[in-house]
Amino acid sequence: MEKHPVTIKDIAKRLNVSVSTVSRALRNVSDINPATKEAVLQLAEELNYEPNYMAQSLVNKKTRIIGVIVPAIHSNYFSEALSGMTDVANENNYYLMFCQSNETFSQEISSMKKLVACNVDGLLLSISKETKDPAEFEKIREKGTPIVMFDRILPDFCCNKVIVDEYEGAFKAVEHLIKRGCRRIVHIAGPAGLSISENRMQGYLDALKKYKLPMDEKLILRCKAFEDDALPAIKKIAHLRPLPDGLFAINDRSAVLAIKYLRSHNISVPEAIKVAGFNDDPISEAVEPSLTTVMQPGYEVGKLAMGILIDEIKNKPNGNQTIRLRTKLIIRDSSK
Amino acid sequence: MEKHPVTIKDIAKRLNVSVSTVSRALRNVSDINPATKEAVLQLAEELNYEPNYMAQSLVNKKTRIIGVIVPAIHSNYFSEALSGMTDVANENNYYLMFCQSNETFSQEISSMKKLVACNVDGLLLSISKETKDPAEFEKIREKGTPIVMFDRILPDFCCNKVIVDEYEGAFKAVEHLIKRGCRRIVHIAGPAGLSISENRMQGYLDALKKYKLPMDEKLILRCKAFEDDALPAIKKIAHLRPLPDGLFAINDRSAVLAIKYLRSHNISVPEAIKVAGFNDDPISEAVEPSLTTVMQPGYEVGKLAMGILIDEIKNKPNGNQTIRLRTKLIIRDSSK
DNA sequence: AACGTTTCCGGTAACGTTGCCGGAAGCTCA
DNA sequence: TGAGCTTCCGGCAACGTTACCGGAAACGTT
Question: Judging by DSSP bridges, how do beta strands B328-330 and B293-295 pair with one another?
């Protein structure tokens, strides 16, 4: 028990060869007699040899670890993305080290520093809602650690980015509401300054413009935070006069809250107000009436972002491209 | 650009002292002149020195990395648990390395081997639905890597475990249905052999027994897989005669599917059949009628499991305790 | 038979850190 | 004033691996 794990030295000693020979045999390089190689491999198998990861990465300066930071894993979208990432990481023999920022800038930075201190080969990042300043990220990049941002990005920061085409998704959703007859469409918007908030808002605005509907500031209701903080905004809806006939929410949770609220105030959905959300969370199918929404391919975003990062690690091109994945409008009963 | 990261040697050279001195200064141990210590710390700060993680863990044989394997991160419950784990890991200066088994035994084992090869200090594990045999886990434990299982456990495997009291949760849910007048209660059960399936089933059975209701094999509908595979089982419900008046599902997704199915077949919920689920997923609140369910504290499970593991890493007691967290019955409209 | 070439292997240094040992200087005290 | 103690520091080995160099042996060529 408790005996030390078997090393390359143990094998060398037992076989009466040098450690370099064992190392060569194990690493499948040339300059090795097939017979001795066979012997080494066999003994390694027998002794259940596992190369020491730390030692390897100490000498070749690669850890094969990818650091991932998301605002909150507890979110359908991010867990989908993480799922895609782990699958790709696994296929490519990379490890995935995970942190969450809990939507705060301070935790984001401290996580990032920890990951960098851990010598991660690359960083996958979706920023918190507080994050505005790319200065800290610059430092990291200067050290040579590639960064790929996904979903919540800093547009001005130079790195590869993978996002979904939120603008187009929002545009399609609002256009759909308009085509179904809505003329006064409320928008429940996200925190200002965040790329996803701005993009979705712009899609909303441009759809109005295309169909020559007036933009009314009073119809744009900002939420300070994400997720459950939409209620104050929602409560304003019932007091708007004239009553709006459509609602486009930044995410499904807000949309569902809105549906529940409206219905409890005897405002019928979809008859009086048609509603569309964003995300295609499981709740969108469960709610009554089922929610028209914009599906974003979270799993695909994760896969793609990880793929691009690994590619960048291998080939060091230091890119600055933005890849936009298409969304899909899922039409359900809330806009009937 | 591209210059190598600053090491302890660089500091030593600039200060004309030895590396050991720098190391001592940095590590805050005795045997060091306050003045030189100050100088070292200051220069380290100035040069932005970060200790090389790999080198450190190579010598002291601790990585401060915890490996986590779950069946699928894309699940509300597991992402909650993971969230708790990361938060505790962060507080204690541990890193979290993440893998998913995608519900297969093979991926579970290969992930585990990778994590162990990576010298993780400990392992947090929730097994796949295929996993029956603890042999591989034994090997790991023999190497001295502590394991804590959570949620989906192997009861016979000797290690600390953190689960929710599924039995009690199921019992309470079924008891609640009975008290609301149900006499023929269907159970949508999970894959056989999995601890959570068995425990919830037992709670169901014992609640029936307590209230002297007959157990009817035809009312127990097994699903082969989790999540979305419940539909074949659900479709049988409408054909049961006499029609059941209650339904307890192994999870909320199945319960929601059932509600949708029943209602589309003009079987009213809760009037004709009252329904209860398990998990308290967000969908349970969204669905119409809102779903009575059993809340399990996923975040708490994650926190606790990580805490226990870290404790075990520090103190090496090699425990074999099972901690059960209480569930909470959330009564909503589906059982009115 | 002498020379060049290939095949295979061992030795050594290095990666960045810590732990241990020994020793020089300065101090205290009889 | 020298013995003993404390304070502080440098040197060396080690962790497990890879990279590089040089060389012995075997082989082939003329």
Answer: antiparallel
